[in-house]
Amino acid sequence: MAAAKIKKGDSVVVLSGKDKGKTGTVAKVMPKDGKIVVEGVNVAARHRKPTQQNPQGGIDRFEAPMAISKVALADPKDGKPTRVRFEEKDGKKVRVAVKSGETIDG
């Protein structure tokens, strides 16, 4: 399995869909499903009927998973979307932003 290019806690930019251009931090990554959950992005609403546990009912809002291919890592320098490359520095494998050449972690 290839190394993960996007990890939990990374800052990402949405490339397509209703939230195109928005940025957020990754809350959860689901590599087997190819999905990702980003805070404040792709917010879905569910209308809930009143129940004994929730007598008020109402609208539940939550971040729904979206395809990893719809997001790109935000460049640490300017916040614009960038691809990721892996390099070895001091015998350690680190992620590097292709646009600026800055290390993302490490």
From TrEMBL:
Under InterPro entries, the record lists: KOW, Rib_uL2_dom2, Ribosomal_uL24, Ribosomal_uL24_C, Ribosomal_uL24_CS, Ribosomal_uL24_KOW, Translation_prot_SH3-like_sf
List, for all copies, the residue spans of the domain called KOW: 5-32
Entry's CDD domains? KOW_RPL26
PROSITE patterns for the chain: RIBOSOMAL_L24
* Source domain of life: Bacteria
User: Keywords of this protein's UniProt record, alphabetized?
Assistant: Ribonucleoprotein, Ribosomal protein, RNA-binding, rRNA-binding
Read off the SMART domains from this record.
KOW
Q: Which GO terms describe its cellular component?
A: ribosome
Q: Does the keyword rRNA-binding apply?
A: yes
What function is annotated for this protein? One of two assembly initiator proteins, it binds directly to the 5'-end of the 23S rRNA, where it nucleates assembly of the 50S subunit.
Its family remark reads:
Belongs to the universal ribosomal protein uL24 family.
Q: Subunit comment for this entry? A: Part of the 50S ribosomal subunit.
Output the NCBIfam families linked to this UniProt entry.
Answer: rplX_bact
What protein does this entry describe?
A: Large ribosomal subunit protein uL24
Q: Which organism is it from?
A: Qipengyuania qiaonensis
Q: Lineage from the top down?
A: Bacteria, Pseudomonadati, Pseudomonadota, Alphaproteobacteria, Sphingomonadales
